Each structure stands twice: as structure tokens, then as C-alpha cells.
Amino acid sequence: MNKTKSLEVQIDHHHKATHSLFLQEYTAGEDSKEKPAKRTLFVMNVPPYCNKECLECLFREFGKIMRIYIQSSPTSKVKKESSHFFPDEQPKQGFKFAYIVYQKLSHVKAALNADNKQRFFVDKEKNYFTGIKKWIQQCEDKLVSRDELQREINTYLEEYDKQKAIQEAKNKQGEADDEGWTVVTSKGRAAVIARTEATEQKIKKKEKKKMSEKQLVNFYTYQLKQSKIQNVAQLRQKFEEDKKRIQELKSSRKFRPY
User: Fold this and answer.
1) This prediction's pTM
2) Helix, strand, coil: what percent of the chain each, to 5?
3) Residue 216: predicted pLDDT
């Protein structure tokens, strides 16, 4: 069981009430590049008003911070950040969890061994708004800046073109053109499977299966065509029989005035 550290924090210098944050050294079953187990501090009971800027202001005294993740539930996965102007989902309300990735393990240890001095979420130079002022600030933050939106669109298009070029290069790798030449990229040719006896048997089985499926498709196509022809012939025969029956009824009809 990891040691849990309680850290008392005030919102700013104008508020005397404190909020308790609970800190642990992050240990996950699967180590990832985004959240390395030996350099990540796990923070619980993060209040709703606390954002990345507040956490950086609070925890930067213990060491250099590389990344900060705020999530609604503890998980080893990291969601891709959505657009600032067009978010994929609404921000989660209520208390959250944070993952602070430091540059060194000693920085995590320093945070877990922190003293009980007075600490704040916001710097003295910055004002933290509450109530109506906070709503006004949130409304102003939702306004779209044309320059920032254009920069985000350009970044997205550049990333899209880059990924598309990589995918096209992978598709072309190892393929032969019309003249029989094989395209070789900077990463070399595609890996070739060794032609062992077992591999050849698998290839033969696949080819045999493809041929049988092809034959079945052709067989069923012919069968459908024949059934349609037979159906049309039956309809024509029935039409002629009905026509003959109607003619016989007309000829056998007698005039009966009473």
C-alpha cells in the first residue's frame, strides 16, 4: 500500500479556508510514456475550480513539471485532448483526479515529504474570480478568437497530411508497379515471410478456399438465374390457361332475359 500524504491548500490569500489534497506515488500495472510510474504524482480530491494552471502553481516548487493530466476517474489511459473551440464532450463536474509528471523521481519524493507551510492554488499576482465574475470570465473564454482558431485548423491539417503521407508510404511499401519494380522506402522493403513447408501449405489452403468460394458464388448465381427463368415460364403458362378459361366461359354464356 502506497503512503498517502495530505496537503492543506488555500484558494488564494483572500480565503482562509483550506482544502485537503491527497498525494500518492503513482504505481500502475502498465507503465506508459504519458504516465511513467516512477515520475508521476497521483493527486486525489482535486476541487472543481482547480485547473492545470492552479496545479502547476502549487506543485512546481517540488521540481520541474513535464505534463499534467486531470481526469474524472483514476485510469492509466490518457484521452487525446479535444479542440479548445469544439470539444468532444462537456467538461466533467465535481471533484477530480490529477496526474503530475515530474522530470525526476526525487521531485515526486519531495512532494510526498512536503512540510505544512501555507500554500495557495493561485499566485498573489493573479486574481481568482468567484460568483458572477467567474461566470463572466467563463463566458468570455467561450468567445472564439479568429487567429487562434485559424492556428488550430492549420495545426490539425498539417497533422492530418502527415498521417496520410505515412499511411500512403506504408501502403506502397513492398508493392510492385506496372513495370514490375518494387517501391523501396527509407525504412527498407517490407518483411518477407520465409517459404517453409508449413507456410506453403497455409498458402495452398487459402488459395483452395478462395477457389471453392468463387465456384460457390458462380454456382449460386447460375441457380438464381435459372429459378427466375422458370418462374417467368410458369407465369406465362398460367396466363395462357386463364386466358383460355375466360374464352370458354364467354362462348358457353347464354342469353337469359328472365
Assistant:
1) 0.52
2) 45, 15, 40
3) 59
